């Protein structure tokens, strides 16, 4: 446990803590920082991972399907547990459980806990979480354009086109010229520190949290129950080793900041989602340490 805490969580806390201090003492434009990460750095990281990863297609497909099934099971469980509440609050809890922070939190922790092999597989989980968020989120929160609007919004994300280019080049056996590839690698290397700084800045700027019943249920299911659900789904899919470890570790990740942005955009229950993001992020640090300590037993 102490070794997992030192090797996995402490590096993340150091970088996110620096961002927290910056967000607490300076008025920073968190939106601009998020745009730099989401639209500039993350696509480069995804492209670099797709061109260099050793994950086979069959393993990747099984991993992504298991992630989707676990997200659906968790969301349905939260919907049952929340009971009779206003529809906006119910949707907020469901989205908070379904959309995990597989980027800002998930990728750095996966790298430290599972090495490059686990990181490559966690990149696939991050892509699924992005797609899930930008389709399910608008649909649940009531996007004016429905599914069509959600799909158009998804196609505007550079990370999606990075996936298309990366997969296309891999299938055709192509590579970028050395100079271009080095530039992509430099951007990819800058991604994890930047997303952790952005996470810390967002937490530093957060206001006082309200622990409502909806926030507590959403937080407990998202961080405490989802690792168990992910383990069960992974075993049902016949997974083992690093893929199963990556899936279970992803279950301990907090609610994604994107869930808050979607609630804000589509006028959902913003306060519930925002409070759940903060609570799950704080809660996920010790939980992720516990999960990381148990991962070696999932062989």
From TrEMBL:
Keyword Cytoplasm (UniProt): no
Lineage: Bacteria, Bacillati, Actinomycetota, Actinomycetes, Propionibacteriales
Pfam family, one: Mem_trans
Intracellular or extracellular location(s): Cell membrane
Bilayer topology annotation: Multi-pass membrane protein
Keywords of the record: Cell membrane, Membrane, Transmembrane, Transmembrane helix, Transport
Gene Ontology CC entries for this record: plasma membrane
Bilayer-spanning residue ranges: 6-26, 65-85, 92-117, 123-141, 153-172, 184-203, 215-238, 244-264, 276-298
PANTHER family found in the cross-reference section: AUXIN EFFLUX CARRIER FAMILY PROTEIN, SLR1864 PROTEIN
Domain of life: Bacteria
Family, similarity comment: Belongs to the auxin efflux carrier (TC 2.A.69) family.
Name of the protein in its database record: Transporter
Keyword Nucleotidyltransferase included in the entry's annotation: no
Main location: membrane
BP GO terms, sorted: transmembrane transport
């Amino acid at each position: 446990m102490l070794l997992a805490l030192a090797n996995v969580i402490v590096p993340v806390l150091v970088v996110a803590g620096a961002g927290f201090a910056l967000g607490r003492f300076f008025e920073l434009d968190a939106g601009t920082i998020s745009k730099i990460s989401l639209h500039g750095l993350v696509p480069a990281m995804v492209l670099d991972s797709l061109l260099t990863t050793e994950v086979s297609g069959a393993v990747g497909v099984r991993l992504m399907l298991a992630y989707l099934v676990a997200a659906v099971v968790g969301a349905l469980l939260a919907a049952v547990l929340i009971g009779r509440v206003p529809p906006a609050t119910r949707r907020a809890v469901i989205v908070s459980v379904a959309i995990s922070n597989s980027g800002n939190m998930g990728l750095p922790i996966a790298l430290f806990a599972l090495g490059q092999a686990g990181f490559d597989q966690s990149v696939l989980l991050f892509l699924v979480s992005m797609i899930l968020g930008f389709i399910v989120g608008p649909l649940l929160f009531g996007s004016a354009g429905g599914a069509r609007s959600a799909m158009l919004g998804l196609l505007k994300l550079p990370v999606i086109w990075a996936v298309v280019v990366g997969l296309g080049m891999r299938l055709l056996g192509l590579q970028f010229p050395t100079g271009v590839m080095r530039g992509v690698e430099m951007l990819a290397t800058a991604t994890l520190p930047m997303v952790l700084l952005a996470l810390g800045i967002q937490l530093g700027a957060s206001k006082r949290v309200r622990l409502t019943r909806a926030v507590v249920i959403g937080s407990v299911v998202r961080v405490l129950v989802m690792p168990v659900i992910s383990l069960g789904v992974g075993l049902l899919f016949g997974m083992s080793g690093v893929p199963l470890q990556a899936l279970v570790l992803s279950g301990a990740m907090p609610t994604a900041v994107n869930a808050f942005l979607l609630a804000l955009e589509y006028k959902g229950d913003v306060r519930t989602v925002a409070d759940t993001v903060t609570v799950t992020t704080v809660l996920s640090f010790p939980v992720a340490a516990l999960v990381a300590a148990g991962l070696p037993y999932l062989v």
